[in-house]
Specification:
heterodimer, A: alpha/beta, 2 domains, 6-stranded mixed β-sheet, 45% helix, B: alpha/beta, 8 strands
C-alpha cells in the first residue's frame, strides 16, 4: 500500500482531522527574497490565452458569455469541462464549458428567472415548474416568515443586501482536508460523528444535526464522484503537490457548483500546498518552474468562476465578484512566520498572469513578517492594486494562527467556525429616523416606532443623540430577528452540505451583522453638536434638508472630538445586538464594510445633517466621506483605527487610493514607504486596508476606452474588481473618492 | 510659540526621506512665477503652536520611524518665521525626530543660523543660478543673498539642491553652466541635486486667486530634456538625488 504521508513529520494530525497540526509540524518558513520565482510556462500561456479570448467575448456579450438554462447546477450535474485539455495542469469547471454560468434555484426562483432574462435567456419551463409547484425555495420561506416591519425595513433600505434570495455564502470549507486525508477518511469521520455525537435523545436540535451530517456525507460521496468524472480518485490522500492542488480545487469546485453564495473564499491554502511542493522538490519530481505552473493554473481556474446574478444584485455588489479570498502569510503562534515560498508563488501569479480581481489576495500583515516578503508583497501591490492587507496582530489573538478571511474582512477559524452572513444596517438612515419621529425620510412612512420630534429650531445634540439610541435599540432587535428568520430558512432550503462537510461536526457559529453609512452618521452628529443645524421640514414633519451654520470637525482627520462618535456608535450597536439571541446560539459580530453597496445605500438615503445631499453615495466601509479627510492619509488611518476591533470582530474596512508619485519618487522608495505605512497601521491596531496605487487619469481613460484596459484592477472596500466591468455610476464614485495626490 | 501656517500633511513622501509630517508655513516674498502654491504667499490668522505640532508628529510617530522619516517644514518660506521653526525643530530633536527644512533661502543670515543647528537635512530650492534669470522668475529679486545662504548651508548640513526645469528657461546652456559653476564653488560636504520637472498643477490656484499666470503657454519638459540636464550635471561630477 502506498504511504501518502511518507516523508511528513508525524503528529496528532494522523490520528484526528487536524490540518493546523499538520502544517505546524511540516511547513518550511521562508525568509529569503523573490529571486527564485519562475515565469509562466508555455502550457500556462496557452491556457491563459484561451481564457483571455473568452473573457473578451464575455465582456462583449454584456458580461455573460453563456447560461445553461436547462439543467440546475449541482456537484455532479454537468459533464467534465476543459479549456485546453492538453495544456491544463489543474482541471475542472463549474459547467461543461468555461465561463458558462449555471442556475442554482434553491435560493429563489424569481432571481434565477430574472437573471436569465436580463441576459436574453429563458429558464427552462420544467425547472420553473418544479421550483414553483413542487419545491419550496429559500426565498419563498423567508418571505412567508417576514413580519410587516421586516419587509418595510428591507424595502425602505434600512436593512439591505439581505441574503434572502440567493446563497448567503461566507462559509469556507477547509478544502485542504481533502488533500491531506482523502475523501474516505473524511467520510469515515463524519459517519462516526453521526453515530456518536448526534445520537440518543432525539431533540429537534439533534435531529437537525443528524439530518445535516447525513447531507454532508452524501455531498462527500458526490465530490468523489465528480472527481472520478475527471479521472481522479480522491478517496485517498494526495500523493504529490499537483494532486494536493487538484484535490483542494475539487472541493472548492463542488462548493461553487452547489452554492451561489455572495462570497466563496478558498481559505488559507498557500502554506499548506507549500509542504507538498517542498516534498516533491526534495523527491526530485518537481522543479520551480512546474511548481509555479501548478499555482498559476489553479489561479486561472479561480479566475473563471462565475455566478449568475440579477441586475439588482449587481447594483449592490458591482463587478461580478466571487470573493475567492486566499489568506496569505501571517505569523504563527510559536513566533515563526507562516510565509513560505508558495506565499510568494501565489502573489507571483499577479505578475505571471497580470492583475485580476480574483482570487482575492489577502496578506495577513505583521510587522514581524520577513522583510523580503514584505518588500515583495508591496511591490506586487503597487504594480497591480490587487492586494489587500489585514492585521494579523489583532486577529491571531482571537482566531489563532489557522484562520482564513471570508469575503473581505471576516476572520474565521478554518474548519471550526461558520458564519451567518448578515449584510448591513444603514446607520445614516437610522439617524434620520431619530430626527423625523421614526418616519422614513424618503416616503414619509412610519418605519421606526413613533417618537417625538426633536424640539427647537436647531437640532439639539443631546436630544437627537438620545433619540438615536432609541432607534438603534429598536433596530438591533429587528435586525437580529430578521437574520434569524433568514438563516433558519437558508439552513432548511439551501444548506451548504459540501462546504459544511469540510468542517468539524461541532462548530462555532457567528452571526455577522454590519453597518453602512458610519461616517455620514458620525459627521452628522458632529455637525449637530459643533455647528448649528436647522432642519427644513415638509408638511409631514420630515426633514428634507438641513441648513448648517458654522464649521464642525469631520471624521477622517484624527480629531478625537468627532472620531469618538465612530467608536461609540459601533460599540453601542453591537451591545444592543447582543441583547437579542441569535439563531443557533451564534455569536454576534459586527463589520464596518459596504463593498460597493455604499452607492445603492446612498440612493436610498435622504439629505443628512452633515451636508450630504439626498441620493449621494455614502462613504465605503469605514472610510471618511469623500474629500473630508484633509489632513493626509495618516490622519484618516488613525481615525479608522480608532474604531475598536473588539466591537467589530467581523472587520473594519478601509480603502486607500494614492497616485504613485505621492507614495515616493522611486519604486524602491514606494515599496519602503508602503511597508512603513502598513507597519504603522498595524501598530495602531487597525484592521484592514485596501491599497490602490493608481493615477486618477488612468481610471478616467479606462472609462473612455475600456477596451484598452482589460485587466485594470482596483480595490474597492474589501475586494478587488475589474474596473471596466463596473457600471458608470460605480466607476465615477471610485474616481470621486479621495485620492491622495499631494506632491 | 506659534507660527503662521497654511496646511499640514501627515503623509508626506516627497519632501525628504521616508514618510514625513509636512508643515506648510504661510508667507513668502519671492513670488516665483511658476510657484505651485501661490496660496501660501500671504498668511491668514491661522496659527499653530510648536508644541501642538510636536504632539501631532508623535501621533504618527510609528509610521515615520518605520520609514526613516520625520518632520519637514516647508512653505511658503519657513525662514520668515525662524524663531518658530527653531523652537519646533529643537523640540523635535529633544524627541529624537528627524528634521528637514525646505527653504528657498530668501532670508537673513541670522534667521538661517537660528534654525540650522536643529536641522538634519536641508532641501534648498534654487530658482536660478544667474541673477538676471532669478530676477525674471521671482518678484524681481537678485539671488545674491540666497547664494550666500546656500554657501552657509552647504558647508554645515547635507543638502538636496532642488532645481526646477522650465524648458528652455532654466536648462539653457548659460544657466546650466552657471549652475555647475555655482555648485562646484560651494565645496559642499554632502550635496545632491534633485531636478524637478516643471508642472502646471498650480494654475488652478493662480486662477482662484485671480492672479495672471504668466507661464500658461509653457509645457512641462520632456523626459529627454530632464535626462539631458541630469547628464550635464553628472558629467560635471555632481551627485543626483535618486528619482
Amino acid at each position: 500500500m502506498v504511504n501518502y504521508w511518507a516523508d511528513f513529520a508525524k503528529g496528532d494530525w494522523q490520528n484526528k482531522i487536524d490540518v493546523r497540526n499538520f502544517i505546524q509540524k511540516n511547513y518550511t518558513p521562508y525568509e529569503g527574497n523573490a529571486d527564485f520565482l519562475a515565469d509562466k510556462t508555455k502550457r500556462t500561456i496557452a491556457v491563459w490565452e484561451k481564457c483571455r479570448e473568452l473573457l473578451t467575448k464575455e465582456r462583449e456579450k454584456n458580461g455573460v458569455l453563456d447560461i445553461d438554462t436547462e439543467k440546475v447546477s449541482a456537484i455532479t450535474s454537468h459533464a467534465p469541462g476543459y479549456i485546453d485539455r492538453e495544456n491544463e495542469v489543474i482541471v475542472g469547471l463549474q459547467l461543461d464549458r468555461p465561463l458558462r454560468r449555471g442556475v442554482i434555484v434553491n435560493g429563489g426562483l424569481r432571481m434565477a428567472v430574472q437573471a436569465c432574462k436580463e441576459y436574453g435567456y429563458e429558464l427552462a419551463p420544467q425547472i420553473k415548474e418544479i421550483y414553483s409547484k413542487h419545491v419550496r425555495t429559500h426565498n419563498d420561506t423567508v418571505f412567508s416568515l417576514y413580519t410587516p416591519e421586516m419587509r418595510k425595513a428591507r424595502s425602505l433600505g434600512l436593512l439591505t443586501g439581505l441574503p434572502d434570495a440567493y446563497g448567503r455564502g461566507r462559509i469556507i470549507g477547509d478544502y485542504r482536508r481533502i488533500a491531506l486525508y482523502g475523501m474516505d477518511r473524511l467520510i469515515e469521520q463524519k459517519e462516526k460523528d453521526f453515530a456518536t455525537l448526534f445520537a440518543g435523545k432525539m431533540s429537534e436540535e439533534i435531529i437537525r444535526s443528524r439530518d445535516e451530517t447525513a447531507q454532508q456525507i452524501a455531498a462527500l460521496h458526490e465530490i468523489k464522484a465528480m472527481a472520478a468524472q475527471y479521472g481522479f480518485d480522491i478517496s485517498r490522500p494526495a500523493d504529490t503537490a499537483s494532486e494536493a492542488v487538484q484535490w483542494i480545487y475539487f472541493g472548492y469546485l463542488a462548493a461553487v457548483k452547489e452554492q451561489n453564495g455572495a462570497a466563496m473564499s478558498i481559505g488559507r491554502i498557500s502554506t499548506f500546498i507549500d509542504i507538498y511542493i517542498e516534498r516533491d522538490l526534495a523527491r526530485g519530481i518537481l522543479s520551480e518552474i512546474t511548481a509555479q505552473e501548478i499555482i498559476d493554473q489553479l489561479v486561472i481556474k479561480l479566475r473563471l468562476v462565475r455566478m449568475l446574478r440579477t441586475p439588482e444584485y449587481n447594483e449592490l455588489f458591482a463587478g461580478d465578484p466571487i470573493w475567492i479570498t486566499e489568506s496569505i502569510g501571517g505569523m504563527g503562534e510559536d513566533g515563526r512566520t507562516l510565509v513560505t515560498k508558495t506565499s510568494m508563488r501565489m502573489l507571483h501569479t499577479l505578475d505571471n498572469l497580470g492583475a485580476a480581481p480574483e482570487p482575492n489576495m489577502t496578506v495577513l500583515w505583521s510587522k514581524r513578517l520577513p522583510q523580503e516578503f514584505k518588500r515583495f508583497a508591496t511591490a506586487v501591490s503597487i504594480n497591480t492594486s490587487a492586494v489587500q492587507y489585514e492585521n494579523d496582530e489583532i486577529m491571531r489573538p482571537v482566531f489563532g494562527d489557522d484562520y482564513g478571511i471570508t469575503c473581505c474582512v471576516s476572520a474565521m477559524k478554518l474548519g471550526k467556525m461558520m458564519q451567518f452572513f448578515g449584510a448591513r444596517a444603514n446607520l445614516a438612515k437610522a439617524l434620520l429616523l431619530s430626527i423625523n419621529g421614526g418616519k422614513d425620510e424618503k416616503t414619509n412612512k412610519q418605519l421606526a416606532p413613533e417618537m417625538a420630534l426633536p424640539q427647537g429650531e436647531y437640532l439639539d445634540y443631546k436630544d437627537v443623540r438620545e433619540k438615536y439610541s432609541q432607534v438603534l435599540e429598536w433596530l438591533a432587535g429587528l435586525y437580529v430577528n430578521t437574520m434569524n428568520v433568514i438563516h433558519y430558512s437558508h439552513d432548511r432550503h439551501a444548506y451548504e452540505a459540501a462546504q459544511m462537510a469540510l468542517h468539524d461536526s461541532e462548530i462555532e457559529r457567528l452571526m455577522a451583522f454590519g453597518v453602512a453609512g458610519l461616517s455620514v452618521a458620525v459627521d452628522s452628529l458632529s455637525a449637530i453638536k459643533y455647528a448649528k443645524v436647522k432642519p427644513v421640514r415638509n408638511a409631514d414633519g420630515v426633514a428634507v434638508d438641513f441648513k448648517i451654520e458654522g464649521e464642525f470637525p469631520q471624521y477622517g482627520n484624527n480629531d478625537p472630538r468627532v472620531d469618538v462618535f465612530a467608536r461609540e456608535i459601533t460599540h453601542e450597536f453591537i451591545t444592543a445586538l447582543k441583547k437579542h439571541p441569535a439563531y443557533r446560539n451564534a455569536k454576534h459580530t459586527l463589520s464596518v464594510l459596504t463593498i460597493t453597496s455604499n452607492v445603492m445605500y446612498g440612493k436610498k438615503t435622504g439629505t443628512t445633517p452633515d451636508g450630504r445631499k439626498a441620493g449621494e453615495a455614502l462613504a465605503p466601509g469605514a472610510n471618511p466621506m469623500h474629500k473630508r479627510d484633509r489632513s493626509g492619509a495618516l490622519a484618516a488611518m488613525k481615525s479608522v483605527a480608532n474604531i475598536s476591533y473588539d466591537d467589530c470582530r467581523d472587520g473594519i474596512s478601509y480603502t486607500f487610493s494614492i497616485i504613485p508619485e505621492a507614495l515616493g519618487k522611486t519604486s524602491a522608495v514606494r515599496e519602503k514607504n508602503l511597508m512603513a505605512l502598513l507597519d504603522g497601521y498595524s501598530d495602531c491596531n487597525a484592521h484592514h486596508i485596501n491599497v490602490n496605487v493608481l493615477d486618477r487619469s488612468v481610471l478616467e481613460d479606462a472609462m473612455r476606452h475600456p477596451e484598452l484596459y482589460p485587466q485594470l484592477t482596483i480595490r474597492v472596500s474589501g475586494y478587488a474588481v475589474n474596473f471596466i466591468r463596473l457600471d458608470r455610476e460605480h466607476q465615477q464614485e471610485i474616481i470621486d473618492r479621495t485620492f491622495y495626490e499631494t506632491i | 510659540m506659534k507660527g503662521y501656517y497654511h496646511s499640514k500633511e501627515t503623509f508626506g513622501t516627497v519632501d525628504g526621506t521616508g514618510i514625513r509630517y509636512v508643515l506648510f508655513l504661510a508667507g513668502c516674498k519671492l513670488q516665483c512665477i511658476f510657484c505651485h502654491n501661490p496660496d501660501t504667499w500671504q498668511h491668514s490668522e491661522k496659527m499653530i503652536d510648536s508644541k501642538a505640532v510636536l504632539h501631532e508628529v508623535n501621533e504618527y510617530r510609528n509610521f515615520y520611524e518605520a520609514s526613516g522619516g520625520g518632520i519637514t517644514v516647508s512653505g511658503g518660506e519657513p525662514l520668515l518665521q525662524p524663531d518658530f521653526v527653531a523652537e519646533l525643530f529643537s523640540l523635535c530633536h529633544n524627541n529624537k525626530i528627524d528634521t528637514t527644512l525646505d527653504t528657498a533661502g530668501f532670508c537673513s543670515k541670522i534667521a538661517l543660523l537660528k534654525v540650522l543647528p536643529y536641522t538634519d537635512h536641508v532641501l534648498f530650492s534654487l530658482k536660478a543660478a544667474t541673477i538676471p534669470l532669478h530676477r525674471k522668475l521671482t518678484a524681481g529679486y537678485s539671488n545674491r543673498k540666497i547664494i550666500e545662504n546656500l554657501q552657509i548651508v552647504a558647508k554645515r548640513k547635507p543638502v538636496t539642491l532642488r532645481y526646477v526645469i522650465l524648458p528652455e528657461i532654466t536648462d539653457t546652456q548659460i544657466e546650466m553652466t552657471a549652475l555647475v559653476n555655482l555648485i562646484h564653488s560651494l565645496r559642499a560636504v554632502n550635496l545632491k541635486v534633485d531636478l524637478l520637472p516643471y508642472h502646471k498643477m498650480g494654475i488652478e490656484k493662480w486662477n482662484a486667486l485671480k492672479m495672471p499666470y504668466l507661464l500658461k503657454d509653457l509645457e512641462p519638459p520632456s523626459a529627454a530634456a530632464i535626462v539631458q540636464a541630469k547628464n550635464k550635471l553628472q558629467s560635471a561630477g555632481i551627485c543626483m538625488a535618486a528619482s
